[in-house]
């Protein structure tokens, strides 16, 4: 369903007629461009998934990537399929990271799962681990409505137990005072397209006969109701770029405005 990039997160459909793989690669390159990577940099990925993005950054941008995950299956898959001498995938909780500073820190698709009560822990840990002139990027689903999170809804009950989506207000709480927001990019309609393509790629569940009818209906409903929610802009997709308030950088992050154009040019070529 995910294709060879194994990206279980929003692709970037920045132009018509992209395939899923092209749109996922566009997302991956956009993350790299917004981070303003330079060869030799030390990069930390929180919740590294199946390892494809870390591998791409090491191969194409010449950086050293440390990825952490809590999933034994993802850790094993990354080691087998996306291994690289400059990539270190660890089976480790990000909160236990100590003793090393990184030039860049990013996460794609884990902020939704750490819980609203742990956002301060997340931001403070990233602040501790990031060099003073570093850049941090968060790629996350967001929610349009303020208020308490409903843990009794379909999605939490059947698909993502314990998940909680942030609202924009969560990024203005006191723990963000140590951070400067360089950029906020919203492209949730791309997630609607991603979800529809994932459903199409199931191809009638060929080769997946072990899943019964109830599971199949549940999974397709999850994909399609999620797509509808992104289309209605009830749920969002955000990429937010931060630098420290104490940064030693001597200019604004102008490179971010060039990132989207660089991705468009790359994938037109």
UniProtKB/TrEMBL annotation:
Keywords: Lipid metabolism, Methyltransferase, S-adenosyl-L-methionine, Transferase. GO terms for molecular function: methyltransferase activity. Gene3D superfamilies: Vaccinia Virus protein VP39. It comes from the Eukaryota. Coiled coil: none annotated. One of its GO terms (biological process) is methylation. It holds the Pfam family CMAS. InterPro entries: CFA/CMAS, CMAS, SAM-dependent_MTases_sf. SUPFAM superfamilies: S-adenosyl-L-methionine-dependent methyltransferases. The keyword Methyltransferase applies. Transmembrane segments: none annotated. Belongs to the CFA/CMAS family. This is Cyclopropane-fatty-acyl-phospholipid synthase. It comes from Polarella glacialis (Dinoflagellate).
